[in-house]
Write a structure and sequence with these properties.
By secondary structure, this protein is of the alpha+beta class. The protein has six helices and twelve strands.
Length: 271
């Protein structure tokens, strides 16, 4: 579906989402949309993505930031990645501990010297894992100047080995943005890393396929290869088209544009 820019699209992770406080999750997503969208007044798509994700990291509702799950040693290691499409600028962090990993990724992007920094940030963070209901979080945005940005943040997989890095901080896997499209993914990182679905969507869009058809094709391929319950994606293109696709029971998501705002929980074909 096509919307009028500026546009902000977010997700709270693809998964089963059983026995959760649905209203609380959607309330946090409403706040995320509002906070992120306010950045369009003075900033652009990259700032909107960072702020929207930071709200979800701070909530403790999702597996990101203070809601991050713990590894096999009972410790927290977080990953996040961010990309600005016009310049292909990237900032990413992996196996860190910080209240807002997405802000650390933004710092790497702004400094511009490197793309991915590992085990470089160790803040004292009170993790509230027991209340986390969701999964990886992400956002994509299109500003008035036509700039696209994408970002993703996660606490990874519960019980993972120390040092494990998933798809979220890897461009082309957990996130990707160009002048054509911005994508954020959620799901099983080890599988996403093998296929690079975010990059595939950009390739299909460059070949002239619609955004909706591109997501559908990538999801169908992924499901045919690995089965179900392992992938969710949101995407925006330069024309203002927005799309979401997942093969799990649910993927909470929301969109805000010039004229309105909507949030969804399980509705597969809605955006």
């Amino acid at each position: 579906m096509r919307y009028n820019k500026p546009i902000l699209l977010i997700h709270g992770g693809a998964g089963t989402w059983r026995n959760v406080d649905k209203e609380k999750s959607l309330s946090v997503m409403q706040e995320s949309l509002d906070r992120g969208y306010s950045e369009f007044r003075t900033g652009g798509s990259i700032e909107a993505v960072v702020e929207a994700i930071a709200v979800m990291e701070d909530s403790g509702v999702f597996n990101a930031g203070v809601g991050s799950v713990k590894n096999s040693e009972g410790k927290v290691e977080m990953d996040a990645g961010l990309m600005f499409g016009r310049t292909l600028s990237i900032g990413a962090v992996a196996s860190i501990r910080a209240r807002n990993p997405i802000r650390k990724a933004y710092q790497v992007l702004k400094e511009g010297r490197h793309v991915l920094m590992v085990r470089t940030y160790w803040e004292d963070v009170d993790v509230n894992e027991g209340h986390a209901q969701g999964d990886t979080v992400g956002a994509v945005a299109l500003d008035e100047q036509g700039n696209l940005s994408a970002g993703t943040s996660t606490g990874g997989i519960r019980g993972k080995l120390p040092g494990r890095v998933g798809d979220s901080p890897i461009p082309g896997a957990g996130f990707y943005a160009t002048e054509r499209v911005a994508v954020s993914c959620t799901g099983v990182g080890e599988l996403i890393l093998k296929v690079l679905p975010a990059k595939e969507i950009d390739t299909l869009r460059a070949m002239g396929y619609s955004l909706e058809d591109s997501l559908r094709a990538v999801l169908n391929k992924f499901t045919a290869t690995f089965g179900r319950d392992n992938l969710g994606m949101i995407a925006l293109d330069s024309e203002g088209n927005a799309a979401a696709s997942f093969n799990t029971e649910a993927m909470p998501r929301g969109i805000r544009w010039r004229e309105g705002k909507r949030v969804f929980f399980k509705e597969v074909d809605s955006l």
